[in-house]
Amino acid sequence: MIDTLQYITQGNSTQDHLENVHKACIQGIKWVQLRIKNTDDTKVLKTAIKARAITNEYGVKLIINDHYKIAKEVQADGVHLGKTDACPLLTREYLGDSFIIGGTANTLEDCRILLDKKVDYIGLGPYQFTKTKKNLSPVLGVIGYRNLLKELNTKTPIIAIGGIAIHDVPPILKTGIYGIAVCGVITSNMSSIKEFQDIIKTIHLPE
Could you tell me the pTM of the whole model? Predict the structure, then answer.
C-alpha cells in the first residue's frame, strides 16, 4: 500500500534527520523517506539502521532515498530512486518483490519509462519552486499534473512533490493525483502532519 502522505526528511546532520524521523512518527506520519545527501555510505547506513528502529517502533514505513543496497541491509520497506540513480529493473532484481520501489519523474517521458520498468509509485514534480532540491526541473503546477495524468491514464500511484503547502493540497488532489510528498513544511512544523492528513481524508479523489 502506497501512503497518500509521505514525509521526506531534512536536516543539517544525520542526527537532525533522526530527530525529525522520530518527531514525525510521534505526530502520526505513516511513511518516511530518509533522504540524506552529500554523506558517505557508512554514515547513511548507520543512520538508516537507527531510522529503521524508530519507524519499527511506531509501525511506520521507511523508504531509503537512492541507496537500494542499504535499504535491503536495514530491511527498510523500500527505496526511492532519483533520475540518475540505479535502474528500477536492476534494483528489483536485487531487492526482490517484497520491497517498494519508487522513482522520480518530471515529464511524460520520465513517467512512461518508470511505468515500463514497473515501479510501484512515481514521485512527480516539482509542483512549484522549492529550495530543497538543486538543479530543479521545470515546475508543473496544477495544470501540468492534470495534463500528465490524462496522458498517462495509469493506476500506478502518482505522488506530487515540490514546495507543497497545506493550502495547495485540495487543488492538487482534485487533478486525480494519488497523494503528496512533503519535506520543508513538515520539517518546520511537525503538527502540520495532522492537518495534511485531515485535508487528504476529506477530499474525494476522482475515479
Answer: 0.94
Residue 96 CA to residue 76 CA, distance in Å, equals: 13
Give pLDDT, residue 179: 97
Dihedral of alpha carbons 124, 129, 133, 136, sign: positive
> Residue type for 103, please?
G
Q: What percent of the chain stands above pLDDT 90? A: 92
List alpha helices for the chain, DSSP H: 14-26, 41-58, 68-73, 88-95, 108-116, 141-152, 169-173, 184-188, 192-202
**How much is the pLDDT for 207?**
44
CATH superfamily for 5-202 is Aldolase class I (3.20.20.70)
All cell numbers assigned to 173:
488532489
